[in-house]
Design a protein that fits this description.
Layout: H1 3-9, H2 13-37, H3 51-61, H4 66-90, H5 95-116, E1 117-119, H6 127-136, E2 151-153
Antiparallel strand pairs: 1-2
Helix pairs in contact: 3-4, 3-5
Length: 156
């Protein structure tokens, strides 16, 4: 529903969004409690095998797109199952899986950085002009098109 339609009907769209988010968070909290306590009904120290860190990798690998997250979560699920099989069959240590996931996250973030930011090398003859320009530039001019810093955000 559009905001203006909700306002015309007498609803506050901001209050509805906050209410739905709080209710969904409460439901997720209750589901988490049921998952953690499980059939024994008490907390145990080794509850989470690191699903929160995997969720960060899934979100970045899926480029924060709902469809991409579905495919990246399937990929990470296959990776988890394959790593369990490799640990059983080949006798690999558990840390190898975490090392691969960390390397994957590092390379995804590095690729994003190198795609979206262009590093330029300024020749020595232009450096005094850049220093003078930086000294005379007002803070409001920093986001202008003529800003010639050595690290600019580019477009793909």
């Amino acid at each position: 529903m559009k905001t203006k339609h909700a306002k015309y009907a007498g609803f506050s769209s901001a209050k509805i969004v906050w209410g739905v988010m709080l209710f969904a968070g409460a439901l997720a909290g209750f589901a988490g409690v049921a998952e953690v306590t499980g059939p024994i009904g008490q907390l145990i120290p080794s509850v989470s095998p690191g699903y929160g860190y995997v969720a960060i990798i899934v979100a970045y690998l899926g480029r924060l797109n709902p469809i991409g997250i579905i495919f990246s979560s399937l990929f990470m699920g296959c990776l988890y199952m394959g790593s369990d099989l490799a640990q059983i069959e080949l006798g690999l240590p558990t840390a190898i899986t975490g090392l691969f996931q960390g390397t994957l996250l590092f390379f995804v973030l590095a690729c994003d950085f190198l795609i979206f930011y262009k590093i330029t090398i300024v020749p020595a003859r232009f450096k005094p002009a850049l220093v003078e320009e930086a000294e005379t530039t007002k803070p409001s001019d920093l986001n202008s098109e003529k800003d010639s810093t050595s690290l600019k955000q580019g477009s793909v």
